[in-house]
């Protein structure tokens, strides 16, 4: 299949391109589109066979449910069986935006879309191109991240093309995703609601609106034997081809340890990648060093993470060492993705002897 790639100017969104993409969706085809989190692989969420095509294009297990994207509050009641307490408060605060909520599904939503579950995940993205596309496509657009299953999620149209060119009808290029990690997933079918995947909308932000919110602890814990509640979180997602290790400790010790580990690995003939920050980039004399952004700007770190993991796949490094990042704000999402990419592999930096003061 020849994939049409259309670049859209955000300041003047061409309706003709949106209409063309909408027709593809209504005809059961696949269109990758930008959202503020990551690029999505759009299909008609109410069309069972379109869901089948989505799984095939991504190489994704069909027990892993899709998120249904809507563009208007009033469309929610068509696809969910009930709207639990707190839903509209959260929607008012965070929709449109990077929050996905899970509800009991209505009969309108096929099991193909929900991976056989009785529940459905719903999100209203803020990206203007996404919103126009959803409306043009009939109002209900399923959108998993537009990557091959197991690869880092795409934050640019070029990433989408790397994985899906020739496998889908169209890619809409709307530039880089502004957030860079996937939406927060909140299960509204339990009391109190539970976070199944951390994202830009944090536990604290939601607790300010509706009171207590829990976190699915299986997603935070390396040793958990329990399956996480979001089926997709059990897969080793976001996995770079190289072994990634997170080096923990005080920053000065981390730099020193990464230098030593890099030297060692290089002497064994390995290619070494380093995830460094704007502040630390000059600390490393050798290795393939990537600047993820300032460690003070948590949003920048989130925005560049997947891009860097993809670049390391292309440069074919054998091992990657990452500095540790804060858990504050969107940092919980960054750490969750980095942990998964690393398969929870940590190295504790050896402490330098410092003079006693
Ligand atoms: O930011 C995002 O959410 C992006 C953009 C494109 O909107 N989409 C995205 O979709 O990340 P995907 O398919 O890559 O991840 C969806 C996650 C999976 O882990 C899936 O298992 C979980 O949501 N999920 C979907 N429906 C669910 C349900 N009914 N119950 C529990 N988990 C669900
Ligand atoms: Mg995904």
Q: Gist?
A:
By secondary structure, the protein is an alpha/beta fold. It has helices at 15-26, 48-58, 76-79, 87-94, 111-114, 128-136, 157-164, 203-210, 251-267, 298-315, 331-341; strands at residues 4-7, 31-33, 40-44, 67-69, 99-104, 119-123, 141-142, 170-173, 184-187, 194-197, 214-215, 243-248, 272-276, 288-291, 319-322, 346-348.
Report on this model:
The model has no long low-confidence stretch (mean pLDDT 94). Helix 10 packs parallel to helix 11. The protein has 11 helices and 16 strands. The protein is 31% helix and 18% strand. The strands form 2 sheets. An 11-stranded mixed sheet has the order 1-8-2-3-7-4-6-5-9-10-11, with helices on both faces. A hairpin with a 6-residue loop joins strand 9 (184-187) and strand 10. It folds into 2 domains: 4-215, DHBP synthase, CATH 3.90.870.10; 243-348, Rossmann fold, CATH 3.40.50.11030. With 357 residues, it is an alpha/beta fold. The structure holds threonylcarbamoyladenylate and magnesium ion. Threonylcarbamoyladenylate binds at residues 35, 37-38, 40, 64-67, 100, 102, 114, 117, 119-121, 123, 125, 143-145, 182-183, 185, 196, 229-233. Threonylcarbamoyladenylate is lined by residues 35, 37-38, 40, 64-67, 100, 102, 114, 117, 119-121, 123, 125, 143-145, 182-183, 185, 196, 229-233.
């Amino acid at each position: 299949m020849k994939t049409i790639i259309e670049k859209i100017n955000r300041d003047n969104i061409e309706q003709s391109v949106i209409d063309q993409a909408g027709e593809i969706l209504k005809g059961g085809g696949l269109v990758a589109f930008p959202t503020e989190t990551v690029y999505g692989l759009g299909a008609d969420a109410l069309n069972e066979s379109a869901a089948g095509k989505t799984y095939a294009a991504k190489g994704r297990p069909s027990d892993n449910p899709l998120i249904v994207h809507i563009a208007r509050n009033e469309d929610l009641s068509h696809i969910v069986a009930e709207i639990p307490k707190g839903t509209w408060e959260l929607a008012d605060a965070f929709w449109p935006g990077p929050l996905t909520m899970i509800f009991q599904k209505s009969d309108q939503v096929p099991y193909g879309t929900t991976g056989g579950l009785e529940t459905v995940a719903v999100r209203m993205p803020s990206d203007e191109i996404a919103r126009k596309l959803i409306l043009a496509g009939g109002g209900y657009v399923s959108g998993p991240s537009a990557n091959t299953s197991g690869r880092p999620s795409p934050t640019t149209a070029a990433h989408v093309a790397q994985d899906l060119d020739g496998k889908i009808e169209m890619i809409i290029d709307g530039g880089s995703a502004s957030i860079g990690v996937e939406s927060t997933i909140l299960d509204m079918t339990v009391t109190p609601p539970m976070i199944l995947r951390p994202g830009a909308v944090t536990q604290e932000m939601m607790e300010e609106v509706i009171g207590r919110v829990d976190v699915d602890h299986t997603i935070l814990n390396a040793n958990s034997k329990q399956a996480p509640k979001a089926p997709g979180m059990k897969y080793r997602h976001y996995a770079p081809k190289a072994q990634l290790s997170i080096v923990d400790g005080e920053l000065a010790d981390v730099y020193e340890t990464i230098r030593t580990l890099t030297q060692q690995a290089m002497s064994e003939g390995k290619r070494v990648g380093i995830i460094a920050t704007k502040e630390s980039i000059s600390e490393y004399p050798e290795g393939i060093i990537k600047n993820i952004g300032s460690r003070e700007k948590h949003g920048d770190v989130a925005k560049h993470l997947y891009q860097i993991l993809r670049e390391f796949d292309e440069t074919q490094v054998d091992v990657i060492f990452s500095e540790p990042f804060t858990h504050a704000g969107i940092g919980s999402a960054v750490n969750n993705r980095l942990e998964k990419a690393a398969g929870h592999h940590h190295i504790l930096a050896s402490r330098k002897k410092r003079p006693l003061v």
